[in-house]
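Final paragraph of the annual report: two paired records, presented back to back.
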Amino acid sequence: MKPANVVAPKPSSGGANLFYNPTFRSVIFQIIAVSALVFFIYTIVNNALNNLDARGIATGFDFLSQEAGFGIGLTLIEYDETYSYGRTFFIGLLNTALVSFLGIILATVLGFFIGIARLSSNWLVSRFAAVYIEIFRNIPLLLQIFFWYFAVLQVLPSPRQSMSLGEAIFLNVRGLYLPAPVFEAGSSFVVAAFCLGIVASIIISIWAKNRQKLTGRQTKMGRIIFGLCIVLPVIVYFLAGSPITAQYPELKGFNFKGGISIIPELAALLLALSIYTAAFIAEIVRSGINAVSHGQTEAAMSLGITRSKTLKLVVIPQALRIIIPPLTSQYLNLTKNSSLAMAIGYPDLVSVFAGTTLNQTGQAIEIIAMTMAVYLTLSLLTSALMNIYNRKVALVER
């Protein structure tokens, strides 16, 4: 009997098998997508540069070394008209960082206070918090900035009729004037004592938390921090012969000289940003607290823990796991909303650099790119810090 003819399988094409490999195809498609994006960006940039060259507009960052020739109302570092455009960039950056940092702190404190008040058993307190939230979060931020600047601060008296508190603090249409500290010889000891107190407080706080985990005993950190950060520097201050004095503002001519001045543009922007963002933070805090099981509160109350300590030690630490992610978004929004400062003339990055500097130099691509990079960096830095804190308070699962 003849054996049946067996047909040997044909060798498959290696290229075909490779093409049907999902991993290989995903890599190829990603390479194609990235290449197309790079080509698209290159085409846009190249066309823009060619158009600028055709109009005789120079490109590059050489303009940053040119003399600015204009003044700035608020500077945290030394500046006058003879400094370069590069200096105006850093001044605008610092002014933006200043209002963003202060705004985040004030909005957080006010938002947590209003959010907790929203849950108060007192009807009047709860209604007041609800009215605050509904009013300020539903009025556009730009209108609130205009309100504080034009309707509140611009109707204050002139410098000669300033509202004063003693002979140290003055408030008028040109701003708020406060005494400025003057550091003389020996003041470094006071500063060193204050820094040492902060470091010691952090170390003791870590030790106290570890001690509480092991033994259950609590340490009264409030008194320790007060003693290290307040009492210790005061003692060193007197032992060193009172080396830190105060420079009081004085009316000279048509305005006050000396001391620390807070311009009305900064005050209006800071008030509007803080109050507006606090309304959203309050709702985030309220929802985070409501998400914590009511049994946690009942268990704490059954142990004899007061309501304030229950909120501080039991409820809020658990609510933070829910609060932090949306809270981060509000911080990012506040930082980006600070660009509305241009509407009232506050010298932030958009007003000083993307405004005046751009108009004088015409370097649109470079200036806008630098401005966008600053806001992107500030947002990514804020997000990174909040993510670190979020991982710290997150519930660790086994």
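The closing record of the year follows.
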Amino acid sequence: MYLFVRDGREYLLAPGETLESDLGILEVPEDVAPGDTVETHLGEAFEVRDLRGPDLFAHFERTGAPMMPRDIGLVMGHTGACGGDRVLDAGTGTGVLTAYLARAGADVVTYERNPEFAEVARSNVEIAGVPDRVEVRVGDVVDDLDDLGTFDLLTLDTEDAPRIVSRARDLLVSGGYVAAYVPFVEGTRAVVEAAREAGLDEIETYETLQREMDFDARGSRPSTAGVGHTGYLVFARA
């Protein structure tokens, strides 16, 4: 899949597909590559781009509120997720975090309770180009904890996060990380307490806030639009 861009418009298309729009019919060549320019039958040109992480966030089919890029960045930065890591993810949802981790070279086993959500996540992983690095399982990860082996990283976006964190010593290799994304303060405290009781180290909690800046003729100031708060992130290490 590639991104076809013109004047702020973006379309996600695969080689051989056809797009019909007010700019004409765009027939995507089988040998198309990033950097090419492809024209519609009316001569309207589209630039071809490879997909990057933010493009996945924008174009994935959504089954709920996906983790925001800024939160994903903190997970990647605080845990050092990289190629060769084995990751257990709980609460797949749209699959954005899973896709980022897999594109960084990690192998991810991710659990989603809702079968329809899981199927969407599988399609999104295909779009991201990493189906060989991701296994989307349907079910509750808590039911399988005794049989999963060990991982370098646990990423949790589920109400069961405290129960999973309580087993982190069994699930993580020495020095491995837990990263839990939690929407409410009460749940965040429960994760922290579970990490303490499990004897995990380097327990840190952050509220993720971000504001855009506006620059115009009158001056410069933080934007008043958008939502600054998304959630809380708890990190801990085995």
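The domain at 55-237 is CATH 3.40.50.150 (Rossmann fold). This concludes the annual technical report; the extension proposal builds directly on these records.
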